[in-house]
Design a protein that fits this description.
Elements lengths: L1 H7 L1 H7 L1 H13 L3 E4 L2 E4 L11 H16 L4 H8 L4
Antiparallel strand pairs: 1-2
Amino acid sequence: MEETASFANFNKRYFDSLVLTVNALQYLTDTKYLYFDNGIVTLAKPFEYNKKMGSRANKIFKASANTARLLNERTDKLYLNLRVEL
């Protein structure tokens, strides 16, 4: 049920986390974990999970492959399916 709720209110969650996302992208670019190439964000070096990061980080780390696969869709299709209002 939690997973369905995450998609049902995706537009609100998208805008609520937009500032945090931009800040994270800037930080990860500054620390050389990712870079931008023609508007595409590319991972420069892999993230290493450490047990000291906690169980929430472990869940995020495990879900990252599926999330990346989902985000490989064309932007217009992704925004339409998630009902993001621009």
